[in-house]
Fold this sequence. Notes:
The complex is a heterotrimer of chains A (409), B (119) and C (311). Chain A has three domains: 4-40, no CATH class; 48-340 and 347-353, Cytochrome-c3 Hydrogenase, chain B (Orthogonal Bundle); 367-407, no CATH class. In chain A, 47% of the residues lie in helices and 14% in strands. Chain A has helices at residues 48-53, 57-65, 72-87, 93-121, 125-146, 166-192, 194-200, 208-213, 218-222, 230-233, 254-277, 328-332, 336-340, 348-354, 359-362, 381-394, 404-407, and strands spanning 7-12, 24-30, 33-40, 155-156, 159-160, 295-303, 306-314, 320-326, 367-370, 375-378. In chain A, the strands form four sheets. In chain A, strands 1-2-3 form a three-stranded antiparallel β-sheet. A three-stranded antiparallel β-sheet of chain A has the order 6-7-8. In chain A, strands 4-5 form a two-stranded antiparallel ribbon. In chain A, helix 2 (57-65) runs antiparallel to helix 3, helix 4 packs antiparallel against helix 5 (125-146) and helix 6 (166-192) packs antiparallel against helix 11. The longest helix of chain A is centred in the N-terminal third of the chain and has 29 residues, at 93-121. Helices cover 15% and strands 17% of the residues of chain B. In chain B, a hairpin with an 8-residue loop joins strand 2 (62-66) and strand 3 (75-80). The model of chain B has no long low-confidence stretch (mean pLDDT 83). Chain C is built from twelve helices and no strands. Chain C has one domain. In chain C, helix 2 (14-35) crosses helix 11 (251-274), helix 4 runs parallel beside helix 10 (218-243) and helix 10 crosses helix 11 (251-274). The chains are: A alpha+beta (409), B alpha+beta (119), C mainly alpha (311). The A-B interface holds A 55-56, 58-63, 65-66, 126-127, 130, 133, 136, 143-144, 147-148, 151, 153, 156, 161-162, 185, 188-189, 191-195, 197 and B 1-8, 11-12, 21, 32-33, 35-37, 55-59, 85-89, 92-93, 101. The complex binds iron/sulfur cluster (2 copies). The site of one iron/sulfur cluster has 14 residues of chain B, from helix 3.
Amino acid sequence: MSDNSKRITIPIGPQHPALKEPGCFTITLEGEKVVNAVVGVGYNHRGLEKACESRTYIQDLYIIERVCGICSHTHSTAFCQGVEELVGVEISPRAKFIRVIMAELERLHSHLLWLGVAAHEIGFDTLFMYSWRDRELVLDMLAMLGGNRVNYGINTLGGVRRDITPEMKELIHKTLNIVEEQNKYYIDLALHETTLAARLSGIGKLSHEDAIKYGAVGPVARASMVKDDIRVSEPYAAYDQIPVKVVTDDHCDVFGRAVVRVLEIMESISMIRFALDNMPDGDLAVKFPRKVPAGEVFSRTEAPRGEDTHYIRGNGTDKPDRVRVRAASEANWHGMQHMLEGDYLADVPIIIAAIDPCYSCTDRAFIVKDLDHGDQRVWDWQSLKRYSVDWYKKRGFDASKIKLAERRI
Amino acid sequence: MKKGPGKIAGFALEHVFKKPATIQYPFGKLKLEESYRGKIEYDAETCIGCNICARDCPAGAIKVVNVGTKEEKSFQCRLDVGHCIFCAQCVDSCPKKCLHFSPNIELAAFSRDNLKVTM
Amino acid sequence: MLMALFNIVIFPGLLFLGIYALFFAFLDRKLYARLQNRVGPPWFQPLADFCKLLGKETIIPQGADRRVFVSLPVFALAAVTTAFIYVPIWSVNSLFPFEGDLIVVLYLLTIPTLCFFLGGWYSTSLYATIGAVRALTQLFSYEVPLFMAMLAPAILAETWSISGISAYYAEHPLYILINIPAFLVAMVACQGKLERVPFDLPEAETEIVSGTFVEYSGRLFAIFKMAIDCELVVVSALIAAIFLPFHAANPWLGFLYFIIKTVIILILLCLFRASMARVRIEQMLMFCWKILTPLAIIQIIINLLVRGALA
Ligand code: SF4
Ligand code: SF4
């Protein structure tokens, strides 16, 4: 059966109605079954990290916020935290709470968005429309708090830019009630609608061991019983003062990921309520210097899609030396091929959608085409480093002599 | 709820006679909060021409120029709405608070030149 | 002769069917939108879409057989229009009733699906080919229960003509209750025929772009779209004629009844479409063969028994 004549290779993407952003999945089919899948991302490389190196920290904040359209707050929080750690300032407790409230609202809207997208991928447009309708309520809250629907811009270096007034608090409580009511219905629906269960369960399998092996993060990992959540394992902002319950599930498939997400919405709602009611008083932002001392820092946050990490290296000026962002989707791509193989072509879009991929935030793949030899290879970090050291050496600057550890103050 | 197909039908039917959640955009508009970050407005009276706004703008969209003489200064703000990312950092940075944002978001124009406004 | 021409081209033929199909498409979309709490399109949207498509460039793929590629949409539309002539509209009788027209209509309604298959196959595009294969696989699964569900009432009425069936049930309206399982089977199976969610696999947008139609554009696509819209009308008219036998002696009133009946069926079909997710091809096969077909067989047995008891 497995001779090549029976196989066809079809490209899903880079432009495909199922994918909202460009990414190419080369799927080899035998009938309708996927026997091989090659994940190709990198169509959307925007050079954000490089752009950050040529701008000041305060300008970078807004660039970093635009790494991802959906989890913009998480990126800016990670960046702010990193820079604040470099400078060594502690932000006020109130600012921490506001950051948490925004982060959880963002998780709400992201998960509702995912529910809609997933429903759309399997042709269930009614659920798609309703979940997006309710997401709109959350977006309105975010717009009210931050001043924009997507890039809230509430974080600033040293705190937050806007306060939550008592009236806003009232309104958020009210809206949360509606969202909670609706979400209960969606949970009910997800668990009882047969066509939904028929399409979601049993596909995109990622066992507990594989989830660890491929380094899955976020809801994908948690749906495989990996109890991994930065909010708990390394609490940042005000998460150490707020009870966080990590939702896990043992389905290990797309259905499990859906369950984790809808249940996480409930968790987020109760966390926002708790944070609103227990918000301490205090300043919004502390004074922040323009120049950031030399040193490097690694900062992590839990994005709606999983762990988001930022690496920032300062060099004593007002511009960073290096900024590296690893968005959550980037970690989840690795298991993709494994998840796709053995499933039906019809399931490919929903399996891809199940990790809630964000293409442009992950596009940092480095593929070098050696035209002379015609081979194509992926460079690992070591060879890339060697290459850059050589490149600078040729121009009279020996970077290898500088010890990074020594530069830290 | 019992398991079965078509569970959402009742919920959907309920909504047929309810007010739709969408609007027909140019004929009906959503009200935006006053605090929505839309187009930047400028007050030339209080501006001192320090250009801190321009220094902090991540998009390089704003610039304040002196159109008067050296003694009789009079400032003009050149804003490229096409480049502006509506972050309002310029508003935060301005020492004289002569910039502020408005909830005006209907800024589309037919040519790029029309997006460059002088205030 | 002139009358026949009028019948074919204007009423109830091409023109009426076309206009009614556009109205149906609007109603379907509007209702679908309202079910999703949206505003929905204005009444002229399907017409506007149709006109827009007519004005667009028609692209024929290089590898495709030109003649077949061009003629398939026309074939599909012609078959659907022909089928419509044998479906009763303003009274129990259709225009040219004859014994056995039920079978003819059912076969005529298979032609569009075959045209979709061939259209996809001749497009020589990967997505279209997969869509074509799916269309054919799907055809084998829903066609059997659909045929059986339509034939069960015919067995009870002891006639193979749609007009005869309509007349029989108009006389004995209570017998229609016996046919309720067949009605349900027919409603579900025709979702497959019309390629609507949950059985819209051949054109599943998020999986295989738009499947069989991916290479069709401009005028040819407009005709295909028209054929699909017309098929919706014909199928609902057929179901209405067989399962909802409420007729009036006055042709005007009868026509009104026809509109009401078909719209009710459209509403049901739309509700189906709005409340389910798309199934996978193997799930569809399983469903059709394991649930729909046995149900239809049971219906036939029941109807045979009732027939025997009545005789
Ligand atoms: S809002 Fe932001 S992008 Fe726009 S001019 Fe001000 S600083 Fe620049
Ligand atoms: S920062 Fe304020 S005062 Fe300074 S140039 Fe800009 S607008 Fe004028």
